[in-house]
Amino acid sequence: MPTADCRKALAARSQTAETEGKPKACDGVKEDDCRGLVLEGIFDDMPKDGRDTADWLTED
After folding, report:
1. Closest listed residue to residue 40, CA positions, set 57, 23, 4
2. Stronger pLDDT, 45 or 7, i.e. the higher one
3. Number of Cα atoms under 13 Å in the Cβ half of residue 45
4. If DSSP states are collapsed to H, E and C, what string results for 7-59?
5. CA distance 26 to 5
6. How far is CA 19 from CA 13, 22, 46, 53, in A?
7. For 16, phi and psi rounded to 5 degrees?
8. pLDDT of res. 19
9. Average pLDDT of 15-22?
10. What is the rounded CA–CA span in Å between residue 34 and residue 2?
11. Which end of the chain is more exposed for a tag (fewer CB within 10 A), N or C?
12. Distance between CA 6 and CA 20 in Å, rounded?
């Protein structure tokens, strides 16, 4: 499944210095979906109290 492979590639990339562009595993994933996976990874790596602040800052 392209999305699962992309999620794994993005998670692995977060442990390296590579930050530019999409990993090859994300080539079959829509741009918006890829952005969502990137944000998901950011929130997963963020401490719980940081998530609360980010949620508060982004509420409409």
Report:
1. 4
2. 7
3. 12
4. HHHHHHHCCCCCCCCCCHHHCCCCHHHHHHHHHHHHHHHCCHHHHHHHHHHHC
5. 7
6. 7, 8, 17, 24
7. -125, 175
8. 66
9. 72
10. 10
11. C
12. 15
Place of tokens 């499944």: 1
Contact by Cβ (8 Å): 14, 40: no
Tell me the angle at which helices 2-13 and 31-45 cross, rounded to the nearest 10 degrees.
Answer: 50
Backbone φ/ψ region at 21: left (φ over 0), alpha (ψ -120 to 50), beta: left
Which pLDDT does position 20 carry in this prediction? 72
Instruction: Please name the residue that has the structure tokens 């080539």.
Output: 27
Indicate the pTM of the whole model: 0.65
- State the amino acid at position 14 in one-letter form: S
In angstroms, the CA 50 to CA 34 distance is 22
